[in-house]
Amino acid sequence: MRRLNVALIGFLAVGVAAMGCGGGAAEAEGEEGAPVVEMSAPTTQLRPLLDQVETDTRLVAVLRGPGQIGYLPPRSTRQGGDIVTTFTIQNTSTGPLAGFKVNEFWYDDNGDTLTGGQYRMKRPLFTDEVVQVTLRVPRNSRATRSNYEFSHQGGAVEATEFEEMAEPTAIVEDGVLTEVVPEEEEEAP
Fold first, then answer.
1. pLDDT tens digit string along 79-117?
2. Partner residues linked to 164 by β-bridges
3. DSSP 8-state secondary structure symbol assigned to residue 122
4. Residue 150: which of 61, 70, 60 has the closest Cα?
5. Mean pLDDT lowest for which of 44-48, 88-92, 147-151, 182-186?
6. Domains of the chain as residue ranges with CATH
7. Assuming Cys at both sites, which of 50, 131, 150, 162 could form a disulfide with 70, CB separation 3.0 to 4.6 Å?
């Protein structure tokens, strides 16, 4: 009985594969009884698509393998029903980090995970760029400590806590990127 089932399944698989490859369709036959298949050129051209891309968009080679960042100690505050954590992060790697991601986990006294949040940058984090990232997670009265994990598309990220850092060049809050314009110094009269 088992051999019959295996043989039946094999026969059906071969039949489906033959139909998928055009084996059962009524086609015109050319010389020597071989089916004639008409080929057509691709309808999508790459050049017009590239011409439509915005001029300030550019492709960059990103870092593969472990990356390095520096960050200031995160600041967590309570705002309404949320815990809001703000990071200032600087890419200290030799290349841009694509898909840079921050995961935040909150734990209770027993070490059980209560809640967490995640942020992923939609653009590369360039070398020496400083960004400010804000995470919001639901507030839980049992949350006593948190842990942070950093990663990127090409692998893990080694994080080093800094005591001081340059002002952010960009702020990311709730998935919205805002460029920071440096304040102009006032001239003395």
1. 999 999 998 999 999 999 999 999 999 999 998 998 888
2. none
3. S
4. 70
5. 182-186
6. 67-179 (2.60.40.10)
7. 162
Burial class (CB in 10 A: 0-12, 13-18, 19+), 63: buried
Our CA angle for 73, 88, 171, nearest 5°, is 150
Reading the block at residue 67, the tokens are 């990356």
Sign of CA dihedral 149, 108, 137, 78: negative
Question: What is the tens place of the pLDDT at every residue in 119-169?
Answer: 898 889 999 999 999 999 998 889 889 999 999 998 899 999 998 888 877
Distance CA 10, CA 30 (A): 31
- Are 68 and 92 in contact by the 8 Å Cβ rule? The answer is yes
Residues 17 and 32: their CA atoms lie apart, in Å, by 23
